[in-house]
Amino acid sequence: MTRPTRSTSTEGGTDPGEVSIETVILIPVVMFLVLMSVQAAVLLHGVTMAEHISMQGAAAAARYGASESAGMRAAEDAASSLGARLWGAPLVSVTAHDVTVEVSVRVPRAVPLFPEVVSRTTTVPRERFTAYGER
Asked: What is the largest CA-CA distance in the chain?
């Protein structure tokens, strides 16, 4: 007569240690993906802020009779109104026909793979005054 033996594996179930291993591996991966998506959104917001700040500075410096300092003040005022942290002073260059403003904005980082500073440059034509009789 043979005796039935007991199997050491669970019939139809999973190994109890398998769940803890899956949890240990899965939770950091999910958290990393969540942090990556949050960091991407923060980076895109920083790009939008830098673009807006450089446009405000260029528009102010391009007005008829305005100087480079007017563009720098307008860019700094736009940065403070948005709550952006500038990485250095805005660079404003004025030529006979164009105004170019370059702005660098610091972006907080949650994931070290993304850049810490975002730069944007805007070039606009300068306003010219034309007397009514010269038109």
From this structure: 122
